[in-house]
Amino acid sequence: MNVNCYQQVITGRNIIARLEGVTQPKVILGGHYDAVSGSPGANDNASGTAVVLAIARRMAGTPLARQTWFVAFDGEEDGFNKSLISNPLRVGRRSE
User: Fold this and answer.
1) Domain that includes residue 64, residue range
2) Has residue 62 been placed in a domain?
3) Labelling 34: which of 46, 48, 53, 90 has CA 20 to 30 A away?
4) What total number of domains does the chain contain?
5) CA-to-CA distance for 52 and 29, rounded, in angstroms?
6) How far apart are CA 27 and CA 19, in angstroms?
7) What DSSP line would sit under 50-64, residue for residue?
């Protein structure tokens, strides 16, 4: 596997809600709400954000043992510079 890394400053806004719990550690549930132009943003990753919201709604008002954070992340796609387009995943050939 080859990995190319670089550092870049990205400005975005994460949205965080939390339910208080009795003990630690925290439980963090998250999905990102940004998408790249021309991509199916509903699948990547509005669906994940919708699940986080649905779980938060379902858990609201329920006493919890652990503090739970619900996070909608921004800027997840920015740092990749459309990495899937630049570096598509390739499926290996089946041996015959």
Assistant:
1) 15-86
2) yes
3) 90
4) 1
5) 6
6) 10
7) HHHHHHHHHHTT--E
Q: What is the pLDDT of residues 6-20, one digit of tens each?
A: 666 767 888 899 899
Task: Count the alpha carbons within 13 Å of 50 in the hemisphere toward its beta carbon.
Answer: 7
- CA 62: distance to chain centroid? 24
DSSP string, 6-48: ---------EEEEE-EEEEEEEEEEEE----TTS-TIIIIIHH
Kindly state the tokens that stand for 62: 């329920």
Residue 95 lies in a domain: no
φ/ψ of 57, rounded to 5, equals: -60, -45
pLDDT digits (tens, 9 = 90+) for 60-84: 988 899 999 999 888 776 655 544 5
Backbone angles phi, psi at 29, to 5 degrees: -115, 130
In a domain, residue 45? The reply is yes
